[in-house]
Amino acid sequence: MITIRPAVPDDAEALTDLMHGSAAYSGKYASILDGYAVKPSQIERDVFYIAERDRTLCRFYSLTLDGEPELDLMFVADGVQGSGLGSMLFRHMMTEARRQGIASIKIVSHPPSVGFYEAMGAVVVGTKPPTAKATWSRPILSLAI
Fold this sequence. Notes:
The chain is an alpha+beta fold. It is about 25% helix and about 30% strand. A hairpin with a 2-residue loop joins strand 2 and strand 3.
């Protein structure tokens, strides 16, 4: 059974563990997560939702609402990728954004995830140049809500 619930500050460590365990962020993409941890204050400030299967965390997302609304984090555990659960969580995010009165969401994407976001209705609108932590260009997408 899948349950989607708001994250609470005590979830910060488990969310960080799920991110760092993601095979999508290994190899050349690992540097962006170096030293990064989800903070309890971040969970309190942003919109964070967790999806659990049988009480086991398997995916989550966060939206930042300060300034231009942005999908800040979206992670799906390796073992459930391709099962449709990521799409289900993404649709939840869209519903939550609509409930909050958001017209569009910016997504600065992990390059291998662009196809997923496009399939969900987002459109590539630009590219974020490399930085010290992200040494590759990242597609910028816009999602109309």
